[in-house]
């Protein structure tokens, strides 16, 4: 239990921790309150009970201790940075004081590679560095610092981005960068035409999801969206925020998280029977948290369904560079639609991001969407929405264009680039394999292969007593399991309930991002915890 | 009139402009359609009439040429990048072909300093450059490239930002950077305590406005917000997007755009009489487009009103570094609230940004908000909203912390920093004075002093025949005037109707950002146009 008196004592002048900023205390208080509040079972928020914050040395009160808030906001949940993560933050501050049976917290809750040791791609960082401070190019020492192709590309970028990284660009993005992205998309898709006008650069793919949700979901019209279960909870969260309903279509765990088109059609029909107006379908390929790569046939089925049923296809393809299964490959929905003869026949928005793949530039907030088949009236509204936000950050736009236009063979940066790329991808593949096979060794745990993305999503079978204990604490069984995992091992994962899962099944999502030197110890700790947990609750 | 045949002829293979990307044609088509669509008079959108885009070489049609869209999106307007700007883009492409009686388009529609020649602050760019590519610090040549304090600060930043610019940070921002910002805010406000926990870093101040709108405006509750007229149209646009109503309070042009607290109370009372639930008041200080700096008394009045009337105060203070009138100075609402004894007694959110001031880092998308007096339940929801968007871009976070913590006297970078800062601010002041006095010389034009910000907002008195001509074209009189200005001079300004103004008055907003060498010619062209316009329509 959180004991406030312990902290007050430490804050006394002269005590060893008197330096602890008061803000830290308030942060801990607020986090504790936040932990108490959200129910991972129902997604409902249990209000803080009218408490309000006080400074230690000020009498602060105000007549309204409540603030009337948008219920859509209160309803929205985002487990990737939810209850378990909030507790983990407190734990990570306490660990140094020896309060826990482990030395470090291991953050396996979020795909944030550079936070856990993955190195950025040199080529990209050299270019961004030069774009921030172009004067470097005029310095004679520059040839010692950067290869010639980097200097050349930097000069081209500086010419292409008028006003540089500090200037607002056109709202859909710098025209030259949109062109570069479009040309790259065309190459990627084996020549399927890509119009730069269909490319909007974004502050991360999430910004594209928000835009589409905002555009499509009409207040008071019972609008809904088909979303895969399990899903990346940005979809459920934004649906809640924008007042839409989530219509789940279940991926089949027994078929390597494959998609069954009949399941999709059934979900659609059921929603319509309930009076919902289904506007779009989100497809995450490769999947998150599941990692599966859709088969070509699945993609054709989805495209045909959307064309027939007047659905917008939201193709979340941010993991397109993370495919590990040798029998699988990524094909964009744009390409499949083109080959099916249905491209431009109905709206498709394809999303990509700088955050994943092997460049892992999460904090950059970069990405793009390609939009085809939208009527002009919609394109005008999308343009206007982009205008209201002025423009995506330029550094992210540049990173996006570089991601899509890496060094070519023969160029000075090529060798290092390929070494870094291959190193990262092969390491990801090794860690994926290691982690998944280790999880499959645990009692009652089955884990599908991580064909792609950055996560393992094992299914856990929990003893009845554990399920009861969870219920007593008002937690979901997998939320309970994950919290116990955190408190016993320091490993932070996200319970399956945060992503959605078939009723009566439990999962958790873990990244396989801990370094290769660390991952062995992570697996060891996890395995021991699991065995102990089963023993305790059997 | 737009003649499509001209473009097709040019696209014939072998023709001189056959290289013109097809996308350009579609862009022009779409822009023209966009121009026809939005009415600056009513703010309503005239639909495109069900047209849809076709590629030149593909037969594209689909069964739905309409896409049902959120009416709040359709309703929202943002004139800073609206109709006139869309036309100006077309014009800027045509100018090279000699189609217009001027050589260049001059973009005076948006506060985007680095696009029009303002140089970034060296100190900031050197640091960002090093943060992007820290390996530079290990290179022996680094001391030739960067002053020692920059190298030292870079090392500190690299230590403070775990995972660097490519890693997601905590959702409210990197803790060390929040601390740095809080300490700076405390210094700025003469010691008024600032808790780092109350500082959230943002992807630009706009992100903070969106967050507050989303939090406060409840669907179907007739929620409203007091907004100054004239205002920066982000407020009207976001109110429309989030389903709230705008309650105008008029600034007094005859009193140097001053605020009359009785006017404010009247507007509040009137809104309530109409059954609106007024949730907040937005105050822009220094003002945009008006540039006025509020008096201390005005600020006290506003604070007292909010505390009494249960209003959230949204203090948009992004121009706090742009104060030119020697008799005026910026005082933060936080400071005034503290001195009035009302700090923490009701919710205040104060916004700042890297986009303005003298650093002008618009494309960076950086900024922060300080939130005080919000109940914990609201703080938890705000935290959750920030989590759903993961984090603000790290480069912007770093720039924000540097903006608030510049070089100090005695440090190697100090002299250059002060030279650049003073140079920019004094030049802005000179241009402000020059422009305003020149506008005041024009017949029928009066322009209040630009006490702050980056804009002049002159009032124009138009002949009756001009007003008629405007009506015939379905334009507002000042929209008509501004379009004529564009087509005759290439100067792009924003009509007052985009910001709101007293009925029967007309204005336009122009930046004073064109360089000092250019601004003379801009004034000349504008003056000539104005005289010709009056002559034509008298």
UniProtKB/TrEMBL annotation, chains A, B:
Pfam families: Aminotran_1_2
Superkingdom of this protein's organism: Eukaryota
InterPro entries: ALAT1/2-like, Aminotransferase_I/II_large, PyrdxlP-dep_Trfase, PyrdxlP-dep_Trfase_major, PyrdxlP-dep_Trfase_small
UniProt-annotated stretches for the region Disordered: 1-22
Pathway: Photosynthesis; C4 acid pathway
This protein's record includes keyword Transferase: yes
Gene3D superfamilies reported for this sequence: 1.10.287.1970, Aspartate Aminotransferase, domain 1, Type I PLP-dependent aspartate aminotransferase-like (Major domain)
Cofactor list: pyridoxal 5'-phosphate
SUPFAM superfamilies in alphabetical order: PLP-dependent transferases (SSF53383)
GO MF annotations in UniProt: transaminase activity
Swiss-Prot/TrEMBL keywords: Aminotransferase, Pyridoxal phosphate, Transferase
Aminotransferase class I/classII large domain mapped to chain residues: 159-526
KW Flavoprotein (keyword) present: no
Quaternary structure, from the entry: Homodimer.
Family in the record: Belongs to the class-I pyridoxal-phosphate-dependent aminotransferase family. Alanine aminotransferase subfamily.
Protein name: Alanine aminotransferase
């Amino acid at each position: 239990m959180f004991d406030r008196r312990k902290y007050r004592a430490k804050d006394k002048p002269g005590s060893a921790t008197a330096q602890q900023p008061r803000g830290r205390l308030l942060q801990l208080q607020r986090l504790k309150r936040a932990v108490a509040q959200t129910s991972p079972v129902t997604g409902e928020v249990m209000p803080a009970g009218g408490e309000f914050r006080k400074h230690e040395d000020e009498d602060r009160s105000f007549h309204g201790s409540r603030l009337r808030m948008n219920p859509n906001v209160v309803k929205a949940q985002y487990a990737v940075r939810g209850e378990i993560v909030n507790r983990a933050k407190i734990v990570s501050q306490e660990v140094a004081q020896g309060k826990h049976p482990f030395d470090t917290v291991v953050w396996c809750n979020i795909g944030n590679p550079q936070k856990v040791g993955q190195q950025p791609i040199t080529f990209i960082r050299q270019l961004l560095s030069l774009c921030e401070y172009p004067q470097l190019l005029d310095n004679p020492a520059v040839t010692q610092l950067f290869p010639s192709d980097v200097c050349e590309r930097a000069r081209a970028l500086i010419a292409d981005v008028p006003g540089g990284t500090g200037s607002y660009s056109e709202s859909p993005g710098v025209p030259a960068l949109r062109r570069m992205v479009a040309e790259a998309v065309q190459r990627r898709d084996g020549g399927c035409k890509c119009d730069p006008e269909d490319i909007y650069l974004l502050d991360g793919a999430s910004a594209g999801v928000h835009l589409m949700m905002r555009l499509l979901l009409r207040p008071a019209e019972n609008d809904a969206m088909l979303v895969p279960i399990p899903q990346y909870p940005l979809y459920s969260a934004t649906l809640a925020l924008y007042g839409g309903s989530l219509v789940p279509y279940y991926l089949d765990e027994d078929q390597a998280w494959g998609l069954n088109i009949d399941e999709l059609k059934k979900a659609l029909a059921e929603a319509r029977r309930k009076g919902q107006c289904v506007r779009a379908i989100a497809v995450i390929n490769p999947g998150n948290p599941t990692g599966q790569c859709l088969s070509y046939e699945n993609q054709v089925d989805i495209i045909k369904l959307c064309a027939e049923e007047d659905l917008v296809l939201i193709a979340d393809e941010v993991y397109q560079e993370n495919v590990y299964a040798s029998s699988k490959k990524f094909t964009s929905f744009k390409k499949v639609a083109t080959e099916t003869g249905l491209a431009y026949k109905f709206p498709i928005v394809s999303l990509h991001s700088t955050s994943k793949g092997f460049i892992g530039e999460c904090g950059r907030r970069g990405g793009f969407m390609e939009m085809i088949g939208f009527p002009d009236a919609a394109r005008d509204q999308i343009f206007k929405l982009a205008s209201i936000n002025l423009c995506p950050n330029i550094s992210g736009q540049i990173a996006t264009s570089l991601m899509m236009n890496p060094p070519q063979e023969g160029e000075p940066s090529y060798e290092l680039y390929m070494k870094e790329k291959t190193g990262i991808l092969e390491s990801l593949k090794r860690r994926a394999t290691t982690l998944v096979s280790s999880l499959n060794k645990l009692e009652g745990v089955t884990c599908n292969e991580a064909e792609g993305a950055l996560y393992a999503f094992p299914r856990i079978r929990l003893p009845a007593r554990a399920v009861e204990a969870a219920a007593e604490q008002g937690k979901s069984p997998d939320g309970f399991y994950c919290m116990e995992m955190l408190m016993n091992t320091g490993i932070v994962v996200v319970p399956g309930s945060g992503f959605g899962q078939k009723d009566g099944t439990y999962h958790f999502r873990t990244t396989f991002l801990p370094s290769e030197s660390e991952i062995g110890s992570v697996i060891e700790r996890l395995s021991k915890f699991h065995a102990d947990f089963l023993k305790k609750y059997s």
